[in-house]
Structure formats: C-alpha cells, structure tokens
Write a structure and sequence with these properties.
single chain, metal ion binding, Formate dehydrogenase gamma subunit, Thioredoxin-like_sf, NuoE_N, NuoE-like
Length: 161
C-alpha cells in the first residue's frame, strides 16, 4: 500500500473485503485481519475508507487498529521475530533474550531495523512454555532460545530473506 494515498485498486480491494463481511456482527476485526493478511499491514490511509464503508467513525477504526498489537501500522521487516515475555518464559531467561535482541539489532521491541530486514515484537505466550524461552520466527515457533541461538537464527533468517 502506498504511504501517501492508497491507490484505487487498494481501495477497491478494501471495499471488497468489507462487502464480504458486511452482514457479520463485529465485522471490523475480521476485515482488519484480512487486510493485514493480504497487504502485510494496515495503512492509516485506508481508515477513512473502512469508516465510511462500515458507518463507523475514523476514531473507532483507528482505536481498534492501535488497541490490538497484532495489527501493524507500517510494513514489517522481511523477518519477523516475536519473543515471548510471559511468566514461564521470563522465569527461564526471556528478558535476557529480549535485551540481547535489542542490542544486536539496534532497535527496541516493536521496531524494524532501518534496512527493513528484521521486525522485533513481543508476545505474551506462544503456548510453548515447557521449552521457554520461546520465540516465533516468520510464523515458526521455536523453543529454548537463548542469546547464542538467537544469533544463529538472525544469521540464518536474515541471510535467507
């Protein structure tokens, strides 16, 4: 999606997604998920289109997008790393892994490297508690991730992306 203004084809696609869910109760969330799946992020420029199509205020649409951490308001890096920060993972060193990742990548959780190679995110449970600290790399859940394993993941994933 264009940052300046979504082109007509993007607007048309968004309208088609709205039409597919128009009769659904609470349609905004499934529509936003579909937009994120299709485009990789939810461009703020389509907020007025969604608001108009769903008869909602722009503030309502924006509020939902910013409330849920699953929605991105800018494109993600080629590699997305989600580090679990739930209690089970914290108890086995997750915070050290997060600190290491931030230091190595030169970014904070929730940011993307300047070259667009890696987006670092936090989650609060990947359901892999017995193998913590857990991470999810491009949708693949991994266990027992320490600083050394994270370094290996970064090398493998950023080279192959």
């Amino acid at each position: 999606m264009a940052v300046d203004s979504p082109d007509t084809s993007v607007k048309d696609r968004v309208r088609a997604l709205v039409a597919a869910h128009r009769g659904d109760r609470g349609a905004l969330l499934p529509i936003l998920h579909r937009i994120q799946e299709e485009f990789g992020w939810v461009d703020q420029e389509i907020v007025p289109v969604l608001a108009a199509e769903l008869n909602l205020s722009r503030a309502d649409v924006h509020g939902v997008i910013t409330f849920y951490s699953d929605f991105r308001s800018e494109p993600a890096g080629r590699t997305t790393i989600k580090l679990c920060r739930a209690e089970a993972c914290q108890s086995v060193g997750a915070e050290q892994v997060v600190s290491h990742a931030e230091q190595v990548l030169g970014i904070k959780v929730g940011q993307t490297t300047s070259d667009g190679s890696v987006t670092l995110e936090q989650v609060f449970c990947l359901g892999n508690c017995a193998l913590g600290p857990a991470a999810q790399v491009n949708g693949r859940v991994l266990g027992r991730v320490d600083a050394k394993r994270l370094d290996a993941i970064l090398v493998t994933e950023t080279v192959s992306s």
